[in-house]
Model the fold of this input.
Amino acid sequence: MTTLSATFTVDLTPAEMLPGAADRFDLAKTWTGDLAGTSRGVMLTAGDPASGSASYIASELFEGVLDGRRGSLTFQQLGTMSGGDPNLLYLIAPGSGTGDLAGVTGTLTIGVIDDEGVHQVSIELD
Done:
């Protein structure tokens, strides 16, 4: 297993509602580090974050370089919060890689998010 590190910043833009979601957002991320490039996607939310109980799903297409290999990947996220306790599954969708990234699978873990919104990420490649 290979462990890499990267950071990202994200811009969330409210978007047209979809059935089955409380809110919808379009997202755009800029990645730096061992994962460098951009990603764009959509996030659907449900629940009441202010009360500590909510969830979201997101899918995003990344284009750029991962550990020196160029191509694209799809990232998928499932985030839940119950009683204020968060849980996040963030992974590279199997079969989504193109170019030099064909066949790449793994998981991402978000660590510290600084005051300027920069997210520290650890990437575990299978």
Notes: The radius of gyration is 15 Å. The first strand starts at residue 2 and ends at 14. The chain has a mean pLDDT of 96.
